[in-house]
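To whoever is on call:

I kicked off a structure prediction for a single chain this morning and the downstream step that reads the tokens threw a length-mismatch warning. I double-checked the sequence; it's 511 residues and nothing unusual in it as far as I can see. Pasting both halves so you can look.
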Amino acid sequence: MIPRIQNDNGIPTLYVHDKPFFARSGEIHNSSASNLDYMEEHVWPALRELNMNSVIVPLYWETMEPQEGIFDFTLLDGLIGRAREEQKHLIFLWFGLWKNAESMYVPAWMKQDTDTYFRVRKVNGESINTISPFCEAAIEKDANAFAKVMAHIREIDEQKSTVIFVQVENEIGLLGTERDYSKEAEEKFKEVVSAELKELCATEGSWKEVFAENAEEYFMAYYFAKAVEKITKAGQQKYALPCYANAWLRQYPWYAGSYPSGGPVKEVHHIWKIVAPSLFTLAPDIYVPYVANVIDEYGYEGNPLVIPEVRKDAVTSSYCLYAFANSNAICYSPFGIEELVLPPEAIDKPPMEVMIALNIDPSAFDITGSKDYLKRTYEMVEQMEPLYLKYRGTDKLMSYVKKSDTDYGTYFSCEEYDIAIAYAPKGQAKPLAAGVIYELAPNKFLIGGMMSNFTFRAKAGENKKVDILRLEEGNVVNGEWKAGRILNGDEKMSIGLGDMPGWKYVEVYKY
């Protein structure tokens, strides 16, 4: 059976080879997969050190269909073959019509034919480097190419399931303009809003009449979603792998066009969900400092959490643990993953003016210490999987992460005890406080994570003290606790987890 999204007791779960699969992944740089020799020398060796089970890899339309109607799957075949040798699954990223709000990866024959494949226009008539979602000819070509790619993947991979799901396009939308003002778009903008969206409309009329100040962004969201649905459906008719789309976040300075207008940001999910039902989720790309807030915002019922791009500094390990343990993530994937094994000074960071223009937090690219923290966290996620599958969706599994500089801790109420958790201060090139707690029995707890201290308390109104019956260091291996030292005396005065992610087993009693 091919990979699929299955509902497990209300939790959407990716199944690969008929087993739950949690993608401990990383996305490689945009151009890395354009040359198999480069992948062999610079990428595949780097990925061996990180406890990954999958990798997000671009597929470029310009290399798949270099001449109109003539397809070349050399890169695709090479990537799948090498991934099998490396024992890693692939999540393909289709760089088709749109990548980061532009049309960067369309074939040369399409780029040069601007009459047939017309561009978006600003209100002043200036064209931008984005093929219009109102260009049916371009959408037809993209849908055809994506269908050919998916058919080829099925032909060579259906039995192996090396490829487990696919991202369609990348960070769709319009930058520098709130909507398309081309002749074709202008005609559509004046039309009555589609009956498809009637449940969202308080009245009937044109886009401006119905949606007022949101009209331009909603208009673009509808037509981008419509285009992506057509492309996705064409591909899934050939091979029904799960597909999703990703979003460049809505962020400062907050107006449509300062971030890609029409892309699947949370504020227009209500439109995307109606118009593009073939997508199993709409995923955030997260480079902002408030990663946990974005995880909470996008991981809601009806939108399984996939994080295809996220910052790769030391704090990413904390968000990784939180994404899986708290938010039932299907995938977690720092961007530029192959760089984590390099010395920090060797990283070619985007110029500061580019990061400022794109609202990217510069610290997101500081990899100091990140490799070892993420490697250990991925190991923890892998080894706790049987426990996680047993307890997820219940109140016996708790998870947390430090969400801001003024977030000092949290408090969990368990069956017979309460747990106060104090967060260590944020440190340079260190993870943030984060953790997972399994309540194995009313007085037995397995705690994992980093940068945290734990105090067990009696319930309110109980005239009791709480003390440690047993405290062990150790590790979780295939869901089983493997004890190391028994800690007593000075060691039990404080139950803490340091910067390197780890585990403790605790039994408590009251007197």
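Update from on-call: the warning came from a stale cache, not from the record. Cleared it. Sanity check on the structure: Residues 215-238 form the longest helix (24 residues).
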